[in-house]
UniProtKB/TrEMBL annotation:
This is AcrR family transcriptional regulator. GO terms for molecular function: DNA-binding transcription factor activity; transcription cis-regulatory region binding. The keyword Transcription applies. Residues 34-53 bind DNA.
Length: 211
């Protein structure tokens, strides 16, 4: 058996295990499903599951590496003359139109969000994931800008941009969970996103001046 075929079979096995796990999680909730049940559904041993996934949470976040790198890709792939904020504005607006999963705007994101919200261990893991995303984006910004090692600017910019997109995404998910349709959500989400990126782009020095 050549190396290419072995790797392909390993990818297929990993995908089957992850798909079976997610189906069980969505049907019954993350905390109510055991790794042994996932193994039976995927027709593999428990040891095989742990060969591919270090923890039960890894089964839920099987695309973690890709997710961690999504925001850095926005920076690396921005157009000539395009600022980082402009690149994220464009990418987020495109995601709204496409209902893309990269910002949690896809169909089913409400179910995903409910599953996470119902599980303390998943909530903790998502906080770790968000921290990893912010750190990776900060490193990318430092590389792209040539920042000095002790320059805090890349970390400050990464934190501001990602918290902005997360707040927008969470707001959209909350409205979906409240029963609103995507058609009802989109106009205000677009407006709020434009306002948020305007604040990032122009600064907040003129916001909420006391009179």
């Amino acid at each position: 058996m050549d190396e290419g075929l072995r790797e392909r079979k390993k990818r297929q096995t990993r995908r089957r295990i992850a798909d079976m796990a997610m189906g069980l999680f969505m049907a019954r909730g993350f905390d109510q499903v055991t790794v042994a049940e996932v193994a039976r559904a995927a027709d593999v041993s428990v040891n095989t599951v742990f060969n591919y996934f270090g923890t039960k949470e890894d089964l839920f976040l099987d695309r973690q590496e890709e997710v961690e790198d999504l925001q850095s890709r926005v920076v690396r792939e921005r157009g000539k003359g395009e600022s980082v904020v402009a690149a994220f504005r464009r990418d987020f607006m495109e995601a709204i139109e496409e209902r893309d999963w990269r910002y949690g705007l896809n169909e089913g994101a409400d179910v995903f969000g409910r599953l996470v919200g119902d599980s303390p261990s998943l909530l903790a893991r998502f906080r770790e994931l968000e921290h990893a995303q912010t750190q990776r984006l900060a490193r990318t910004l430092a590389e792209e800008s040539g920042a000095a090692p002790d320059d805090l600017t890349p970390s400050l910019v990464a934190a501001q941009i990602l918290e902005t997109t997360r707040l927008l995404s969470r707001h959209a998910t909350a409205r979906t969970l409240a029963g609103e349709s995507w058609a009802e959500i989109v106009p205000q989400l677009r407006s709020q996103a434009e306002q948020a990126f305007d604040l990032l782009e122009k600064g907040i020095s003129g916001y909420c001046v006391r009179v």
